[in-house]
TrEMBL record:
Organism whose genome encodes this protein: Vibrio harveyi (Beneckea harveyi)
Name under which the protein is recorded: Helix-turn-helix domain-containing protein
Domain of life: Bacteria
Amino acid sequence: FNLWETGNALYYKHDFEQVLKAKAYPEIKRSDDGKTIVTINNHECIYHKDQLLLQCP
């Protein structure tokens, strides 16, 4: 079991490090009322953190 988990850790190490080094998405605005607005292909989408929902009207 420990050998299997060690192999998994080494396999995913590179992916994990790349996530830590990634740049944040540049088209994000945070409003004063707590909303997060993300622009995707010229459409503004609202992210609701409490529901884990990205709503694009």
